[in-house]
């Protein structure tokens, strides 16, 4: 499938290799304003919009540009792989979703944690831990930030996507975004979500932390699941029971999954969808995540 890459900054250069390695896609154009019109490189976005040979595009531009670029290419009948988050607001996402459905094209957002083998296994094990009481997560690092995107859009979005992946769009009762960093953009903060089923999610994200931390804990009434990307084991399961005022561990299992190829897995999933798979889960999850992110302007304190 002939494919174009839109945006050739830090992430665009990373994703280029994975597109070229994919058996689903043939990269025929790379578009970015600073590129010369030479070889497969171009700065002419309109040319690619109207190129009937291009069937899919990968969008790695700033989030503020996603809506207009996605809209143009969907209307031109092309499949979209978009870096997270898809857009800035729920209204924008609904317009894109309607366009994708009208043109029968795929609108796929790269929520890379949802294709992680550890997170996938974690979801399989959820029924073993009973009713989910709490989801706690943290992503911390010294890392890149962008003038128009706060830490919730850059890092917190991963934690929101995992919560949505686990809870299957259960309605939210309340959501609160706490800004720990009063700079612009905000580089550290906390998200607390109370779902209608009683589950509480407590999510921390920071771009001003000296160590890399990727950790998610799901506590249930019968056990706990722990994802730790940089731990001795990427996933642990511990069952327990309550006996005479003490919680007693009963069983523990652990797994070590390879988390280095999740972008490859996401591109493979996108390729399968472009070739006829009708699974709507990524589109539905993307809409739910944008709804959660969009609501931060109502509850920031």
TrEMBL record:
Organism domain of life: Bacteria
Q: Which Pfam families match?
A: GFO_IDH_MocA (PF01408), GFO_IDH_MocA_C (PF02894)
Q: Which Gene3D superfamilies match?
A: Dihydrodipicolinate Reductase, domain 2 (3.30.360.10), NAD(P)-binding Rossmann-like Domain (3.40.50.720)
Q: Which residues form the Gfo/Idh/MocA-like oxidoreductase C-terminal domain?
A: 154-252
Extract the GO molecular function terms from the UniProt entry.
Answer: nucleotide binding
Classification via InterPro entries? Gfo/Idh/MocA-like_OxRdtase_C, Gfo/Idh/MocA-like_OxRdtase_N, Gfo/Idh/MocA_Oxidoreductases, NAD(P)-bd_dom_sf
According to the entry, every stretch annotated as the Gfo/Idh/MocA-like oxidoreductase N-terminal domain falls at: 2-110
Q: Which family does it belong to?
A: Belongs to the Gfo/Idh/MocA family.
Name of the protein in question: Gfo/Idh/MocA family oxidoreductase
Organism, as annotated: Anaerotruncus colihominis
């Amino acid at each position: 499938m002939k494919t174009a890459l839109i945006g050739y900054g830090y992430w665009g250069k990373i994703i280029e290799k994975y597109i070229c390695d994919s058996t689903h896609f043939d990269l025929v154009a790379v578009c970015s304003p600073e590129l010369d019109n030479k070889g497969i490189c171009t700065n002419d976005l309109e040319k690619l919009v109207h190129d009937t040979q291009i069937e899919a595009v990968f969008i790695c531009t700033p989030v503020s540009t996603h809506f207009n670029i996605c809209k143009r290419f969907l209307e031109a009948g092309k499949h979209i792989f978009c870096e997270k988050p898809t857009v800035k607001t729920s209204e924008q996402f609904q317009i894109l979703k309607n366009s994708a459905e009208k043109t029968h094209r795929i609108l796929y957002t790269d929520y890379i944690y949802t294709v992680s083998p550890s997170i996938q296994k974690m979801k399989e094990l959820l029924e073993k831990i009973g009713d989910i009481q709490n989801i706690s997560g943290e992503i911390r690092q010294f890392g890149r930030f962008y003038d128009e995107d706060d830490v919730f859009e850059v890092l917190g979005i991963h934690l929101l996507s995992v919560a949505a992946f686990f809870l299957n769009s259960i309605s939210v009762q309340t959501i609160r975004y706490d800004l720990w960093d009063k700079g612009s953009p905000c580089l550290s903060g906390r998200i607390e979500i109370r779902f209608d089923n009683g589950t509480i999610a407590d999510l921390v994200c920071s771009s001003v932390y000296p160590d890399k931390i990727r950790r998610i804990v799901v506590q249930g009434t019968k056990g706990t699941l722990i994802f730790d990307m940089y731990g001795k084991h990427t996933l642990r399961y511990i069952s327990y029971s309550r006996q005479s005022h003490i919680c007693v561990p009963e069983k523990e299992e652990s797994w070590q999954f390879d988390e280095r190829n999740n972008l490859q897995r996401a591109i493979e999933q996108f390729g399968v969808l472009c070739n006829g798979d009708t699974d709507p889960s990524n589109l539905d999850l993307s809409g739910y995540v944008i709804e959660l992110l969009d609501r931060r302007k109502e509850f920031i304190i």
